[in-house]
Amino acid sequence: xxxxxxxxxxxxxxxxxxxxxxxxxxxxxxxxxxxxxxxxxxxxxxxxxxxxxxxxxxxxxxxxxxxxxxxxxxxxxxxxxxxxxxxxxxxxxxxxxxxxxxxxxxxxxxxxxxxxxxxxxxxxxxxxxxxxxxxxxxxxxxxxxxxxxxxxxxxxxxxxxxxxxxxxxxxxxxxxxxxxxxxxxxxxxxxxxxxx
Length: 196
Prior knowledge:
Elements: H1 8-18, H2 21-40, H3 45-54, H4 63-73, H5 88-100, H6 105-112, H7 123-134, H8 141-151, H9 156-174, H10 181-194
Helix pairs in contact: 2-3, 2-7, 3-6, 4-5, 5-6, 6-7, 7-9, 8-9, 9-10
């Protein structure tokens, strides 16, 4: 897919109409951060920007609408359904494909897994996951800076991911939310990779 032929203006207009103002600002920040990380890791900048733009396109859908789209169109593991806050990820990938004709598997997978992640993510999937958590427009700058420092180290992508998973687990426990077993598996996997 030639990302230069994708009509970003159409996407931006749609996002403006379907996201809250804060989520729209976050989306722009994620797209810019994803492009920056793509440059750092010699990945396709246009694809990264596009994945960043669309990663949360279904975020402001009602839980009922998300569940309806999942039920009628998608295969989602039961364990993924534990936390309604992550349901937008598979639906966002679906909307990217159906609404905007994105057929690039790498972009769709990065959008699909930007909340929970998965074992053995590609570098492209990792940068979208990370960009979502550290973009400078709406994310905590102090926390983001600690993650950015890790990106400059050897094995930096995995170290940054591990730090983000630690933060996520702490946050879920603090808010008394259920934890998907996949999240625990990924955390353990990253511990093995980083601390070999």
